Amino acid sequence: MNRAVRRATITVAEAATEGLDMVTVVIGGAIGAWAGYTYSPDTWSGDWRLAIAGGVAVVAAVAVNTLAELFLNPLRRLLTKARSTAQPTTTRTRTAPAAPATLSEGLAQVAAATERDAASRAASDAWELDQGDGFLRDEDRWRGYEDATASFFLAPGVWLHYRTEKNEYGRSAARFTLLTGDGDQPVPIAHVQEIRHQLAARAAGLPAAPVTDSSDRDQGDVLDDDLTGLHATA
Predict the structure, then answer these.
(1) Which of these, 69, 129, 159, 171, has the minimum number of CB atoms within 10 Å of its CB?
(2) What pTM, to 2 d.p., does this model score?
C-alpha cells in the first residue's frame, strides 16, 4: 500500500476509534436514563424520577464505556503499532563502540566520530543552499574529515567543500566552496543554482567562475547559448 494512503487510513481509523468511544458513552447514558425513568415508580414525583434517571444514566454510561474499552484498547494498540511502522525512517541509530583499551584506540574512535559529525553538520547546514528536495542534505553523500570539514562529490573532478569559520559576531558559520581537480581557485557557493552554473560551465568547456555581477554577464550569455545547444543534442 502506498505510504501516504496507509497513513491516511490509519488517521481515519484512529478518528473512528475515538468517535466510538464517545458513542458508547452517549448510548450507555441514553439507555440508563430511559431505564431509570421508565422503571421508577409512578407514584414518585417527576423530580425524583428525573434524578433517578440521571443517576442511572451516569452509571450505565460508565459501564457500557468500560465494556467497550475491552475491544477498543486492543484496536488502539494495533493502530499505534501501525502508525509507528508507517512513519518514514529519517534518523539512523548507531551503536557506540566498546570502550577503548589504549590511547590509540580512543583517538581512532574520536577521529571517526569527528568525521561522522562533520558529515552530519554539512548535511544539516546545506539547508542554506538547498531548500528544495534535500539533494545536498543527504548525509550519506557527504564525507567528513578529521579537521571537521566535509566534501560532497558532485561529478568527476568536482566536489562541494564544507567548513565552518567565525563570522563577525564570533559565531561559527558554514562556508561552502566548489573545488575541482584542475587546480582552479575554490569558488564560494551560496545557492544550489550556483552549483548548476559551475557544472554547466564545465560541460560547455568554459572556465569555472561565479557569475556575480554585470561584468560577468557576457560569460553568462555565452553559457546559456552553449547550454541550449547541449540540451538540443542530448
Answers:
(1) 171
(2) 0.49
